[in-house]
Design goal:
Blueprint: H1 3-35, H2 43-49, H3 56-90
Length: 96
Amino acid sequence: MSNNTATIKTRKNLVSTRTITMTALLAAISYVLAFLEFPVPLSPSFGEFLPFIKTKLDIVLFNALPFNILKGMVIGAITMMIYKKLTPILKGETWK
């Protein structure tokens, strides 16, 4: 194995180690911040507009979750429609 190949593998390992470390660090910070109580500017407007929303879980279940499901279905449908045309490009084949 040449020195250049070893250097490339070392750089790839370093990049993936950094990526994993940053992901773990940000996940830990998000986990801690999830349990801290701080005022969210939009919370009162949710309560006024939709009176059945009382907690943060209600905000997620009634506001974020349905739109994320809808978005996933739309993106999935678009992907299913264009996948056949993109298959040669994804497999590295040339145009015919």
